[in-house]
Design goal:
Layout (H helix, E strand, L loop, with lengths): L4 H20 L9 H30 L3 E5 L9 H8 L2 H10 L4 H5 L11 H15 L4 E6 L7 E5 L2 E5 L12 E12 L2 E6 L5 E6 L2 E13 L6 E11 L1 H9 L3 H12 L16 H24 L8 H4 E6 L6 H12 L4 H11 E4 L10 E3 H7 L1 H21 L4 H7 L2 E2 L5 E3 H7 L3 E4 L2 H11 L1 H6 L4 E3 L6 H7 L2 H11 L20 H26 L8 E6 L8 H17 L8 E6 L7 H18 L8 E6 L4 H7 L5 E4 L11 H7 L3 E4 L5 H8 L5 E2 L4 H8 L5 H7 L1 H11 L12 H7 L8 H19 L2 H13 L6 H13 L6
Parallel strand pairs: 1-2, 1-10, 2-9, 10-11, 11-15, 15-16, 17-18, 17-20, 18-19, 20-21, 21-22
Antiparallel strand pairs: 3-4, 5-8, 6-7, 8-9, 12-14, 13-14
Helix pairs in contact: 1-2, 1-4, 2-3, 6-33, 7-8, 11-12, 11-14, 13-14, 21-32, 22-23, 22-29, 22-31, 28-29
The structure holds N-[ethoxy(oxo)acetyl]-beta-D-glucopyranosylamine.
């Protein structure tokens, strides 16, 4: 008698796990140990995916199809193991197999380290898009850098952020496939040399360069149960032989090793600033390194198809620039086409413009990248020449169309002159691309009407919007199995592939039985989180309280301070007994501050100090708790979000380009308190005004207040509760050991003009929070609102975003 198929597959999986423990890891499989068996399972799952991956890559070649190159200096994929298991549809099998060894799958999953190859929203978006490209069968690849050290590991010591090294590759990752045979030479420095070609034309070549090798390292990104596996190719810097030899020949052994180490530094570490790039030489090296390697790979594939001319390049290749970090690509492609392929400038430029598209992710002025002319000229001399030539032709053209408009030439030029000569990378990206998009409707509008207004006038139709999205596989199915199961039990599982099906849930919003099941799931998730917090922090929290979460990078524009002022206000009300009845709340904060951003780091300290005061005050009891969870990352978000009642999306209007955390919360049934900013606006539109807690000044108000007349001090003087909260911060109530510690925070709000308009929004925010509490006291109402949030989130699937990019920008179709 043959065993049933599932038994067979469980048995063969078990064999594979043990085989890998013994033969891949060289470990004794007995007794089964968690760490070893985790790796054994990883390799066994990986084996099952590799065939599909090879098949997918082959199908690209066979169908000679146009492919998308998603170029991003950051990716935040989160843990892979469960993602692969679910993509392969083998969760039950895996559970059973490891159970037979006396192990628990959920515990094994916790063994995996998060690849922190990104800072925040931009990197996580790239990973959601990879997931959707695979699931929607869009032919393409992700390209980036395999950093040895990802975003720093955050610990909180005495309330302060400490940064530790995130050596995620210390033990080889089972997910990274190193491709020693895909190595490209990358040049830097040297000079551009003019020469005459055989036809007597003046041409240029880049000579006397220093070089480094880029080695391809691949990570598979599977589609959901569709056999399609997309490749994410991350480059690692490897020193070149010549480089070493030069020193060896001089008998300088240590020098040889040192120069090897120095050249490999390129892929050593991710820059940990989310929105304010520093003009560091190493960062520009990283950008060019990954651009040059990626273009050699693109051209290798293009040539494989034996095209007679480069004219059809844009029919084969679409390159998406994820912000300006890869924008030097435009000069690089021009260099290849003009210098190496001998195309005319005009032909090359046409090809460029048809190939590139650019996504902007922020309007914060300090985040718009510029590189000094001096630095580019030294590191990439030929590219600087090309940039000057692009600019010359561009300004010529503008000058002809708008004679006498010197102001216009100055505002559009690729070169800014006010602060020493700087190359504006966004301008390069705009003029070198056929399409530029923002990431939510409001943000795209701001690009057109404010930030890049003159460009929009110049190129009508070039600017467009693609509202961000999130993958429902990771952010609902994987992160919230209990809710997924409940949803599946009433509307089936089609939402996994087509999130618009969630709308069928709306019919159950008032159904008492469904409401009860919904509440039970949410309670269970909150209990799980409470257990996690107890384990991590040793702090007990009560799952019956309202879970209020503010989790994202720490930045003044995201206004964690506004939230803290509300917490202090609640605290004061509780202490003074001025509220007859208070709805107990637990506040969750999590997020990293850029290591050099002092104000953000002080905000972390303040949150922790307020937490200490509140949590330790017997007068407060269980009514208010504040926790700061260290080392926010994708896995932590997956634990927090399914347990949230309230999602804080309270940025100054106009400043958060989109947000994607806002979508993850609403999808999981949390209600949002938010401003009219980024994608909040569109979320509110679909979930309905009644199911959203709105407050605060609009983007236009903000613009007006910034133009003059805003007086935060007057607001401070006239609002008793606000004044009290600020005075407590500034006089050392939360820092008795150093009373002046938090002065810089209060100064930014009072003495320095409160640029982020915290005080302007305080009263409305506190009032809306009171409405939150009131609604929470009515479980039937709250649950209805929660269900309707989930039910209406179909639009925010990254599948929808990716299909918009594919149709409107990349002009590629899904493989059949
Ligand atoms: C972020 C934006 O701040 C966020 O609003 C948006 O949802 C996300 O990109 C994805 O579009 N920006 C960054 O993470 C960032 O690093 C600087 O921007 C270039």
């Amino acid at each position: 008698m043959t065993a049933p198929e599932s038994n067979q597959s469980v048995e063969s999986l078990k064999d594979d796990i043990q085989r890998h423990v013994a033969l891949t890891l060289g470990s004794d499989p007995f007794p089964p140990r968690k760490g070893r068996y985790y790796l054994g399972l990883c390799y066994s799952v990986r084996d099952r995916l590799l065939g599909q991956w090879l098949e997918t890559q082959r199908s690209y070649y066979d169908s000679i199809t146009k492919r998308v190159y998603y170029m991003s200096l950051e990716f935040l994929p989160g843990r892979f193991l469960m993602n692969y298991i679910q993509a392969l549809g083998m969760e039950e099998e895996c559970r059973e197999a490891v159970r037979d060894f006396g192990l628990d799958l959920d515990e094994l999953l916790e063994e995996e380290w998060n690849p922190g190859l990104g800072n925040g929203g931009l990197g996580r978006l790239a990973s959601c898009y990879m997931d959707s490209m695979a699931t929607c069968r869009i032919p393409g690849y992700g390209y980036g850098i395999l950093y040895d050290y990802g975003i720093f590991y955050q610990t909180i010591v005495n309330g302060y952020q400490h940064e530790g090294a995130d050596n995620w590759l210390r033990q080889d990752s089972p997910w990274v496939l190193r491709r020693g045979h895909f190595m490209f030479l990358i040049n830097f420095y040297g000079r551009s040399e003019a020469y005459e070609d055989s036809a007597g034309h003046e041409r240029f070549r880049w000579v006397d360069t220093e070089s480094v090798m880029a080695m391809a390292c691949d990570i598979m990104v599977p589609g959901h149960q569709n056999g399609h596996v997309t490749n994410m190719r991350l480059w690692k810097a490897i020193s070149t032989r010549d480089f070493e030899l030069e020193h060896f020949n001089r008998g300088d052994y240590i020098g040889a090793v040192q120069s090897k180490v120095e050249s490999e530094n390129i892929s050593k570490v991710l820059y940990p600033n989310d929105t304010s790039p520093r003009g560091k030489e190493l960062r520009l090296r990283q950008q060019y390194f990954f651009v040059a390697a990626t273009f050699q790979d693109i051209l290798r594939r293009f040539r494989k198809n034996n095209y007679s001319s480069f004219d059809c390049f844009p029919d084969q290749v679409a390159v998406q620039l994820n912000d300006t970090h890869p924008a030097i690509s435009i000069a690089e492609l021009m260099r290849i086409l003009v210098d190496e392929e001998s195309l005319t400038w005009e032909t090359a430029w046409t090809i460029c413009q048809k190939t590139f598209s650019y996504t902007n992710h922020t309007v914060l002025p300090e985040a718009l990248e510029t590189w000094s002319v001096e630095l580019i000229g030294r590191m990439l001399p030929r590219h600087l020449q090309i940039i000057f030539e692009i600019n010359r032709r561009f300004l010529d053209d503008v000058g002809k169309r708008f004679p006498g408009r010197v102001d216009l030439l100055r505002s559009l030029s690729l070169i800014a002159e006010d602060n020493g000569k700087q190359v504006r990378m966004a301008h390069l990206a705009i003029i070198g691309s056929h399409t530029v998009n923002g990431v939510a409707e409001l943000h795209s509008k701001i690009l057109k009407t404010r930030l890049f207004k003159d460009f929009d006038n110049l190129y009508p139709g070039k600017f467009t919007n693609v509202t961000n999205g999130i993958t429902p596989r990771r952010w609902l199915m994987q992160a919230n199995p209990a809710l997924s199961e409940l949803i599946g039990s009433v509307i089936g599982d089609e939402w996994i592939h087509d999130l618009s099906h969630l709308s069928e849930l709306a019919a159950y919003a008032d159904d008492p039985e469904f409401q009860q099941r919904w509440q039970e799931v949410r309670k269970r998730n909150k209990k799980l989180l409470a257990r996690y917090v107890l384990r991590k922090l040793g702090v007990g929290i009560n799952p019956a309280t309202l879970f209020d979460m503010h989790i994202k990078r720490i930045h003044e524009y995201k206004r964690q301070i506004l939230n803290v002022l509300h917490v202090i206000t609640l605290y004061n009300r509780i202490r003074s007994g001025s509220v007859a009845h208070h709805v107990p709340r637990t506040l969750f904060f999590a997020g990293k501050a850029a290591p050099g951003y002092m104000q953000a780091k002080l905000i972390i300290k303040l949150i922790n100090a307020v937490g200490q005061a509140v949590n330790g005050d017997p007068a407060v009891g269980n009514d208010l708790r504040v926790v700061f969870l260290p080392n926010y990352c994708v896995s932590q978000a997956e634990k927090l979000i399914p347990a949230a009642d309230l999602s804080e999306q309270i940025s100054t209007a106009g400043m958060e380009a989109s947000g994607t955390g806002n979508m993850k919360f609403a999808l999981n049934g949390a209600l949002t308190i938010g401003t009219l900013d980024g994608a909040n606006i569109e979320i509110r539109e679909v979930v309905g005004e009644d199911n959203f807690f709105l407050f605060g000044h609009t983007e236009e108000d903000v613009h007006r207040l910034h133009s003059g007349g805003y007086d935060p001090v007057q607001i401070y003087e006239s609002n008793i509760e606000l004044k009290k909260a600020l005075d407590m911060i500034s006089t050392g109530f939360f820092s008795p050991e150093a009373p002046g510690l938090f002065r810089p925070i209060v100064d930014s709000l009072l003495a320095h003009g409160d640029y982020y308009l915290v005080l302007a929004d305080y009263a409305k925010y506190v009032a809306e929070q009171a409405r939150v509490s009131k609604c929470y006291e009515d479980p039937a109402l709250w649950t209805r609102m929660s269900i309707l949030n989930t039910a209406n989130m179909g639009k925010f699937s990254s599948d929808r975003s990716i299909m918009e990019y594919a149709r409107n920008i990349w002009k590629v179709s899904p493989l059949t």
